[in-house]
Design brief:
Layout: E1 2-7, E2 16-22, E3 25-30, H1 34-49, H2 64-79, H3 82-100, H4 110-122, H5 127-146, H6 160-163, H7 177-190, H8 195-204, H9 208-212, E4 219-220, E5 225-228, E6 231-233, E7 236-238, E8 246-249, H10 252-271, H11 292-307, H12 315-327, H13 332-339, H14 344-351, H15 359-364, H16 374-379
Antiparallel strand pairs: 1-2, 2-3, 4-5, 5-8, 6-7
Length: about 375
């Protein structure tokens, strides 16, 4: 009985193998670099001592295409929201299966993964898309490790050049308080029926999907808070991004705007023959939920043009809420809770640049203890 680690062909860049001899049978497996091979060998030795290891003939290792299909039909169905499942399907169809689909899982190497990432970068895909491709591939291969089909995930520990960690503050483009005022004035003048939605996004930091899924029963006018428990994503009602419901406070201005909007919504419901106020707080011309993409083109982008402002995303109103509150020194934990972040640390990482500046005050504090020598004063 023995487990050894070596290269079949010696030399830099050549793969390392694990050789196992047990009960008169032998086998070998290619396991990437030396460190990975030694880690696998150590695990095999432990399993041999516990009599949990066998060299009996195993089932054929599935190809990436076959395993990823099983992954989508089991793990993804149980753990992912519909929008995430659709995203996985798109990435598999366009990027992963064309490159790796016909390769058995145990034959996919770090070199294969690096080559895929490099190719996608060369085609001009955005960094966020390439990160998504790598993340989805890694998630599928991690499940294969958990299923004991492969010993290690070749999409992990690729080195700094291939990690592509996202700067949490990248792409944030909030409006200033003055710019927000200009936008709200333009909306009030040109798109009055949408004023309450604009104000809600700017005063609560809610995601657009959360806002469009609001029902009147979610709003407590007496307590001045909104319960966020749903999100409208690609026409489907789901849970919020965090998976948890939360309460967000309403300012006095927002409370009054929503009260006025409710009166108009009742009139709209009767005019449409619904017999009562529509179920959703914000509705289209037929009383149904608003389509985000249609609203962006038809209302949001045009309102920015009317206001004479630069083009921003709807999501930047969420960033506007956060940065305005943080820049005036509001409690970071409260802001984090309102946004639905899983921790205040995430909020700090994203909005650190908008924390009130204290550097000058900290430097000025040195003057209180600075002693200037008399000779230096005489020279002056």
């Amino acid at each position: 009985m023995g487990v050894t680690v070596r290269q079949k062909k010696k030399g830099k860049g050549q793969p390392w193998w694990v050789f196992v001899s047990h009960n008169g049978k032998r086998t070998s497996r290619q396991v990437g670099d030396k460190r990975a091979a030694e880690r696998v060998a150590s695990e095999i030795r432990e399993r041999l001592q516990l009599k949990e290891f066998t060299l009996e003939k195993k089932k054929p290792v599935p190809t990436f295409r076959v395993y990823s299909r099983a992954f989508m039909e089991t793990y993804s169905v149980m753990n992912h929201k519909p929008a995430t499942q659709e995203s996985y399907e798109t990435v598999l169809r366009l990027h992963l299966n064309p490159a790796l689909g016909d390769i058995p899982l145990d034959k996919i190497t770090k070199r294969d993964v690096k080559a895929l990432i490099y190719e996608k970068r060369q085609t001009g895909l955005s960094q966020s898309t390439v990160r998504l491709i790598k993340a989805y591939l890694s998630a599928i291969l991690s499940e294969a490790v958990d299923d004991e089909i492969i010993p290690l995930n070749p999409a992990q520990r690729l080195g700094r050049a291939f990690n592509g960690k996202k700067d949490p503050a990248a792409g944030i483009n909030p409006l200033s308080r003055k710019e927000l005022g200009v936008l709200l004035d333009a909306v009030s003048e040109n798109y009055k029926e949408h004023y309450a939605l604009f104000l809600l996004l700017a005063r609560t930091g809610m995601r657009i999907g959360e806002a469009l899924a609001l029902e009147w029963g979610d709003i407590d006018f007496a307590g001045r808070f909104i319960t966020v428990s749903r999100s409208l994503v690609r026409g489907r009602i789901s849970t919020p991004k965090s998976g948890k419901s939360r309460r967000v406070d309403m300012s006095l201005q927002l409370t009054e705007a929503l009260k006025r909007h409710k009166v108009q919504s009742k009139k709209k419901g009767f005019s449409l023959g619904l017999g009562d106020i529509p179920e959703y707080v914000f509705t289209n011309n037929k009383g149904g939920p608003i389509d985000k993409n249609n609203w962006r083109r038809r209302v949001f982008n045009k309102a920015l043009e009317k206001a004479g402002l630069r083009k921003i995303r709807i999501h930047d109103l969420r960033h506007t809420y956060a940065t305005l509150r943080i820049s005036k020194g509001d409690n970071i934990s409260d802001v984090s809770g309102q946004l639905g972040h899983h921790s205040a640390k995430l909020t700090l990482d994203v909005y650190n640049h908008w924390m009130p500046g204290k550097k000058k005050a900290e430097v000025d504090a040195l003057d209180d203890v600075l002693v200037v020598p008399e000779k230096a004063v005489e020279r002056i």
